C-alpha cells in the first residue's frame, strides 16, 4: 500500500525537491506552502507522515504541531528547521514532533528518516486466524495495551505521541535491563546513521511527566548515571 507524506514547506524549490525524491522512492506526496494550509490538509487527508518546516507563513511549524496534538491527531511529524538551535529542536519535540532535521539535508537522509518512522508505525498485516491473547503490561496503577495504543494510570487515560508510546513499549519489553541512549535511538528511531541522543532524553522526560507521580523522583523509568535508562517494576 502506497504511503502518503505531507510536505509543508514554503520554499518552493525545497518542496519540489522533496516531492520529487519522495515520489521516486514510491511515496504519494501532498504539498502545502503555509502552516494553515498544512494544518487543514493534515486534518482532512490524514497522511501517514508529515514533513513540517519550522518557519512558515500564517502559522509556524510549532503552532501546527501543537494544534495537531491538541486535536489528538497522531500523525508522525518530522520537523524541518534551518536553525541549528538546540532550543528550537527541544521545543519542537516537547510540542509533539517525533523527530527533526536541520537544513541543509540530503534527499537520501530524508528518505531514510521517513522510511524509518513509517516502518515503526505501520501496523503489520495479519492473517485471520485465531487471535492470541492480548499483550498487557501492568505495573502498579500503570496498564499499557501495545496492540490498542492505549495506556492508563489507574483510571486516567494517558495520551502519547506515536514515538513516545513506542519508546514506552520498548522499555517495558526490556524491563530491568539498562538501555543506553544509543540502543534506544537505534531500536526506536531505527536510524541507519548517527542520530542525536538528545531526542531520547526529551522523550524520556515526556514519559515521566505522564506516567510518574513525581517526574523528579521517578518510580518506573530510572536514570542509570553514565549508562542510560532502565524501566523498573516498583517495589511493593
Q: Explain this structure to me?
A:
The protein has two domains: 4-121, Response regulator (Rossmann fold, 3-Layer(aba) Sandwich), CATH 3.40.50; 137-231, Winged helix-like DNA-binding domain superfamily/Winged helix DNA-binding domain (Arc Repressor Mutant, subunit A), CATH 1.10.10. The chain is 39% helix and 20% strand. The protein has eight helices and twelve strands. It has helices at 12-24, 35-45, 61-70, 86-94, 107-121, 162-173, 181-189, 198-211, and strands at 4-8, 28-32, 49-53, 77-81, 99-102, 137-139, 142-145, 150-153, 156-157, 179-180, 221-224, 228-231. The chain has a five-stranded parallel sheet, with helices on both faces. Strand 8 and strand 9 form a beta hairpin. It is elongated and about 60 Å long.
Q: Helix/strand-derived class?
A: alpha/beta
Q: In terms of per-residue confidence, which ranges show pLDDT below 50 for 5 or more consecutive residues? A: 125-131
What proportion strand? 15-25%
Number of helices: 8
CATH class of the largest domain: Alpha Beta
Summarize the helix and strand pattern as letters: EHEHEHEHEHEEEEHEHHEE
Helix content: 25-40%
CATH superfamily of the largest domain: Response regulator
What form results from the Cα inertia axes?
Answer: elongated
**pLDDT average, as an integer?**
85
Number of DSSP-assigned strands: 12
Q: Major sheet: size, sense and barrel closure? A: 5 strands, parallel
CATH topology of the largest domain: Rossmann fold
